C-alpha cells in the first residue's frame, strides 16, 4: 500500500517535470545569437587564402592552385557542403539568397551588429565569381570532382584530389548556371550600392554580360559540365533561371528591358504557368513569382499588370500551400515541418520560410491578405508559419533537438563535414529529420547530418526579421533597398 501511494504521488511530479522540460525547450529563442552563428558558418566554408580576421580559427588556407592548370585564377569561393568541391550553381544561389536577405532586412541586421559580417560573406562569393567570369561568354562552374573527392575523407587544407576546373562557353552552354550567377551578382550589386559604388557597378556589369550569355547561348549546364550531374543535376532546366536573372537585373538597374523580358517571356518560360511547392538551388519559379508580385504591388508593372498578376497568382499558390490552405498543400511531418525529400530536407524549409516571411511583409505593406482556396490568410498568419518552421529548426520539436550546430543544448555532434571533423561547426544547418521527425546523429548519415551553404543563406533574412521585428518598415517603397 505504501509503495502504491508513492507511485501515485510521483505521477504528478513526473508530469510536472515533463511540462517544465517542454516549457524550457519551447520558451523562446535568441534569434540574434542564431543569426550570428548562422553567418559564422560561412567562414568555415571558405576556400582560398583566409584573411587575418578569420574567426573560425581551425580553418586554414586551401585550394591555392585552383584554376592554375587552366590558366585562370580560381582561388577563393565556398565549398558547398561537407566536401571540398566548389559547385558554381549552389554557390551562386547561396549568394543570391544572402543578398536578398540583406536587401529586405539590412536594417535589422545593422541593429544586430551583423550587417558587416553578412556583407563580407557575400563578397567572399562575388569576388570569386568575378574571377570565374574572365570573358563575357565564359564562366567557370566547378572546381574539383565530386567522385574523387568523395573517395577521401580529407580536410581541404590537406586534399590531394583532382582540382580540375570546368567551364561553360558558347560551344558548351549553361543558361541555368550563367543565369543564377547573373542573379547573384545583380542582387549583390544592390547590397554594395551605397558602401562600395565602384564594386557595385562592377558586379552589375558582370550580371549584364552573364544574362546576355545565358539568354543567347541556351542549354543546361550539366550537359556541358557532366561531372556535376551526380551532385547538382539541373532537373528544372534553365527557363526559371532566365526569369530569375531578369527579375534581379530589373531590381538592381530599374532598366525597362528586363521588366519587358519578364512580361514577354512569362508564359513561354513558365513563370506564369508553374505553380510550385518547392524553392531552392534548382527550381527558382516561386522566387521569381514572389519578386514579380512585389513589383506589381509596388506599382512598377507599367503596361504589364495583367501578366504580372498571373505571376502573383502562382506566388500565392505557393504561399497557400505552405500554410495548408491551398489546392495543393506542401507535405509536413507529424511535428509540422515542411517535408520535401529524404536528403537535406531543411534546405526547402529555410527557403520556403524566407519567401513566406518577405511575402507576409509585402502584404502588410500593401494592406492586403492572401486569398486561398480554403480561406483568407492574414499576413501575420503567413509570418507565423515561417516562424514556426524556424523555431522547429532551433529546437521547438518533440525531440527538443536544434538542427543548428552550436545553438541550444542539444544539437548534432557528428556532422558529416570533412573540414570541421573534429571541431565544432558553429551555425551549420544540417540536413534535418525525416518525414516522421526522426533523426540519426551519425557522421555517415549524410542525408541528415551534412550541412550546406544554401541551407543557411535564406535563414539570415528570417532570423534578422524575427530578432529585429518589422518596425513599421514599408517593404514596398521603391528605392528603399538597403535603407537603414
Instruction: State Rg.
Output: 22 Å
Query: What form results from the Cα inertia axes?
Result: globular
Beta-strand percentage range: under 5%
- CATH-defined topology: Glycosyltransferase
CATH architecture: Alpha/alpha barrel
Terminal CA distance: 70 Å
Please, what is the average pLDDT? 92
Number of helices: 17
**Main sheet strand line-up:** 1-2-3
Number of domains: 1
Given helix and strand content, the structural type is mainly alpha
The beta-strand count equals 5
Helix content: 40-55%
Largest sheet: 3 strands, antiparallel
CATH class division: Mainly Alpha
Secondary-structure element order, as H and E? HHEHHEHEHHHHHHHHHEEHHH
Low-confidence stretches: 1-26
Overview of the molecule:
With 484 residues, this protein is mainly α. It has a single domain (30-52, 62-468), classed as Glycosyltransferase. It has helices at residues 2-25, 31-44, 88-112, 115-132, 146-151, 175-191, 197-216, 221-224, 229-232, 239-253, 256-265, 285-297, 305-322, 346-366, 379-393, 446-449, 453-468; strands spanning 86-87, 139-143, 165-168, 370-372, 375-377. The protein has a 3-stranded antiparallel beta sheet. β4 (370-372) and β5 form a beta hairpin. α6 (175-191) packs antiparallel against α7 and α7 (197-216) packs antiparallel against α10. The N and C termini lie far apart (70 Å). The model is unreliable at 1-26 (pLDDT under 50).
Amino acid at each position: 500500500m505504501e509503495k502504491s501511494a508513492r507511485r501515485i504521488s510521483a505521477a504528478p511530479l513526473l508530469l510536472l517535470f515533463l511540462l517544465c522540460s517542454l516549457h524550457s525547450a519551447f520558451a523562446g529563442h535568441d534569434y540574434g545569437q542564431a543569426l550570428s552563428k548562422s553567418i559564422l558558418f560561412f567562414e568555415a566554408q571558405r576556400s582560398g587564402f583566409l584573411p587575418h580576421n578569420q574567426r573560425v580559427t581551425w580553418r586554414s588556407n586551401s585550394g591555392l592552385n585552383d584554376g592554375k592548370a587552366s590558366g585562370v585564377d580560381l582561388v577563393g569561393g565556398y565549398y558547398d557542403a561537407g566536401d571540398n568541391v566548389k559547385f558554381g550553381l549552389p554557390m551562386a544561389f547561396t549568394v543570391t539568397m544572402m543578398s536578398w536577405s540583406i536587401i529586405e532586412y539590412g536594417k535589422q541586421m545593422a541593429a544586430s551588429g551583423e550587417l558587416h559580417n553578412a556583407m563580407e560573406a557575400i563578397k567572399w562569393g562575388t569576388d570569386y565569381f568575378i574571377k570565374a567570369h574572365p570573358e563575357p561568354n565564359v564562366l567557370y562552374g566547378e572546381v574539383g570532382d565530386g567522385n574523387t573527392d568523395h573517395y577521401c575523407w580529407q580536410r581541404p587544407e590537406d586534399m590531394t584530389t583532382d582540382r580540375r576546373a570546368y567551364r561553360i562557353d558558347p560551344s558548351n552552354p549553361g543558361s541555368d548556371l550563367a543565369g543564377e550567377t547573373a542573379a547573384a551578382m545583380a542582387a549583390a550589386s544592390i547590397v554594395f550600392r551605397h558602401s562600395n559604388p565602384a564594386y557595385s557597378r562592377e558586379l552589375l556589369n558582370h550580371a549584364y554580360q552573364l544574362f546576355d550569355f545565358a539568354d543567347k547561348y541556351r542549354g543546361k549546364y550539366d550537359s556541358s559540365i557532366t561531372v556535376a550531374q551526380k551532385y547538382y543535376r539541373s532537373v528544372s532546366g534553365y527557363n526559371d533561371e532566365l526569369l530569375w536573372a531578369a527579375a534581379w537585373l530589373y531590381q538592381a538597374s530599374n532598366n525597362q528591358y528586363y521588366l519587358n523580358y519578364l512580361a514577354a517571356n512569362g508564359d513561354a518560360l513558365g513563370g506564369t504557368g508553374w505553380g510550385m511547392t518547392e524553392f531552392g538551388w534548382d527550381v527558382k519559379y516561386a522566387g521569381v513569382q514572389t519578386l514579380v508580385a512585389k513589383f506589381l504591388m509596388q506599382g512598377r508593372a507599367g503596361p504589364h499588370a495583367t501578366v504580372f498578376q498571373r505571376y502573383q497568382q502562382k506566388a500565392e499558390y505557393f504561399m497557400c500551400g505552405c500554410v495548408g490552405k491551398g489546392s495543393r498543400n506542401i507535405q509536413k511531418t507529424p511535428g509540422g515541418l515542411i517535408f520535401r525529400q529524404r536528403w537535406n530536407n531543411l534546405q526547402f524549409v529555410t527557403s520556403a520560410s524566407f519567401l513566406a516571411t518577405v511575402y507576409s511583409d509585402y502584404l502588410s505593406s500593401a494592406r492586403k491578405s492572401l486569398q486561398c482556396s480554403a480561406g483568407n490568410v492574414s499576413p501575420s498568419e503567413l509570418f507565423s508559419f515561417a516562424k514556426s518552421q524556424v523555431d522547429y529548426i532551433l529546437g521547438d520539436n518533440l525531440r527538443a533537438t536544434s538542427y543548428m550546430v552550436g545553438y541550444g543544448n542539444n544539437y548534432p555532434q557528428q556532422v558529416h563535414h570533412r573540414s570541421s571533423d573534429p571541431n565544432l561547426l558553429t551555425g551549420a544547418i544540417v540536413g534535418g529529420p525525416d518525414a516522421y521527425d526522426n533523426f540519426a546523429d551519425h557522421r555517415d548519415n549524410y542525408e541528415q547530418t551534412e550541412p550546406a551553404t544554401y541551407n543557411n543563406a535564406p535563414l539570415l533574412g528570417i532570423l534578422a526579421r524575427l530578432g529585429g521585428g518589422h518596425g513599421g518598415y514599408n517593404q514596398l517603397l521603391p528605392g528603399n533597398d538597403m535603407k537603414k
